[in-house]
Inverse folding.
């Protein structure tokens, strides 16, 4: 049976990982390749590296990092951040990334999803969506790391992304991210019911139970987390053992 | 030992190269027929689409070359599919090393997502390629939309929607549907075992 995936996410700036709390206030957490290797050795199923550098110089550093990750790590990894056009994708895949994650660029230019999936296959194209539960009960998508609201709703956009050729949806709930009280399982379950591509849950992990809940209640195919792993609050071998005891299929 | 990775218009060839480097082996990534022919071991990796890839191989006469190889050959993912007789992907005639067809996964329930992507187990492992793997049903990494049905060439099987053949062997030809280069320690063992054949 296909295993539920545990995915540590590493936000990278100048080769070092940082983690934002509610998308601001960065704290430093360590060397990106070393950390990824450690997670891989502990049993992480995949890694996500997000480039949060804004400068051109930083982007080049990131491609070098992708090359080092590919050389050192024997599990699949996704890279994202600053991907605006096909040639960015080409550069990152050539450096050894298995998948790319596109976020704001896809909202601004949805055609980019088709371009990526046509050229490289839909399995390469992860569409990341940052959305927030608004006071009126709707889930709305945000641009630029959650800074700019849009008029697109989460479910409509996720469906459109799938129809345009996305291979996976990585949904981060801005309302849950950094709060450590669990994933946005209602919205996740609704996504799982309406889509036929895998959904990665992101934002809200604080305890091991949260992972179980997002697989069972949220029907997620994979769960992504950052700070609980970076700061050792949850250890991947213990998490997997716990999930196995909860009758969830995981790779041990 | 000369290891050659066949270079062609498929994605992710360098992942295999990196994986071999981690095992301390410097492979040559090439489409040069001479280098491929005289290598001790040949790896035929792949990620991509059957029609254009077969066309590419035929135009460069790599199709006949691969079929005639006598040293151990390891096909990976699309490499495995192209070593079969026929693929439903674009109804393509393939290399025909293995007399079996390649079929598209047909979802039966909403939960059956295609491509089959992620970590799944292999069972009935019957080949020196799996020597030293301590788990009976080890996890390996898959990304594919087409599969080889159960057949006598199977050296591992996997269940996804249907039971299917996840690795095949005949004479000097071996192939895995999964990606050993992305399958952590299990994958490293499979690659090492291939190098040790």
């Amino acid at each position: 049976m296909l295993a539920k995936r545990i995915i540590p996410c590493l936000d990278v700036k100048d080769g070092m990982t940082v983690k934002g709390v509610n998308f601001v206030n960065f704290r430093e957490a360590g060397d990106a390749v070393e950390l990824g290797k450690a997670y891989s050795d502990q049993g992480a199923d995949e890694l996500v590296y997000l480039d949060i550098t804004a400068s051109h110089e930083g982007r080049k550093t990131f491609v070098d990092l992708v090359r080092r990750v590919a050389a050192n790590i024997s599990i699949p990894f996704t890279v994202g951040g600053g991907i605006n056009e096909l040639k960015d994708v080409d550069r990152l895949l050539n450096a050894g990334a298995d998948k790319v994650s596109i976020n704001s660029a896809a909202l601004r230019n949805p055609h980019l999803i088709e371009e990526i999936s046509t050229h490289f296959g839909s399995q390469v194209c992860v569409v990341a969506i940052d959305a927030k539960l608004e006071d009126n009960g709707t889930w709305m998508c945000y641009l630029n790391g959650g800074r700019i609201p849009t008029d697109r709703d989460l479910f409509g956009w996720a469906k459109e992304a799938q129809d345009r050729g996305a291979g996976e949806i990585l949904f981060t709930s801005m309302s849950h991210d950094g709060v450590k009280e669990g994933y946005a399982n209602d919205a996740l379950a609704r996504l799982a019911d309406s889509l036929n591509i895998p959904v990665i849950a992101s934002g809200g992990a604080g305890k091991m139970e949260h992972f179980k809940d997002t697989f069972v209640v949220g029907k997620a195919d994979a769960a992504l987390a950052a700070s609980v792993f970076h700061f050792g609050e949850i250890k991947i071998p213990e998490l997997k053992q716990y999930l196995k005891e909860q009758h969830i299929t995981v790779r041990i | 030992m000369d290891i050659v990775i066949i270079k062609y218009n498929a994605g992710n060839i360098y992942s295999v190269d990196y994986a071999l480097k981690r095992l301390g082996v410097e492979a040559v990534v090439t489409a040069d027929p001479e280098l491929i022919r005289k290598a001790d071991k040949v790896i035929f990796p792949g990620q991509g689409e059957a029609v254009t890839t077969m066309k590419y191989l035929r135009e460069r006469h790599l199709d006949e070359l691969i079929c005639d190889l006598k040293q151990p050959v390891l096909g990976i993912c699309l490499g495995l599919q192209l070593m079969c007789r026929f693929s439903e992907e674009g109804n393509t005639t393939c290399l025909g090393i293995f007399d079996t067809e390649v079929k598209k996964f047909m979802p039966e329930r909403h939960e059956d997502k295609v491509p089959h992507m992620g970590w799944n187990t292999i069972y009935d492992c019957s080949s020196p390629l799996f020597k030293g793997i301590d788990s009976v049903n080890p996890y390996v990494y898959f990304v594919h939309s087409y599969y080889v049905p159960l057949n006598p060439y199977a050296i591992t099987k996997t269940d996804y929607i249907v039971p299917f053949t996840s690795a095949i062997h005949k004479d000097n030809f071996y192939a895995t549907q999964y990606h050993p280069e992305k399958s952590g320690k299990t994958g490293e063992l499979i690659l090492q075992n291939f190098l040790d054949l």
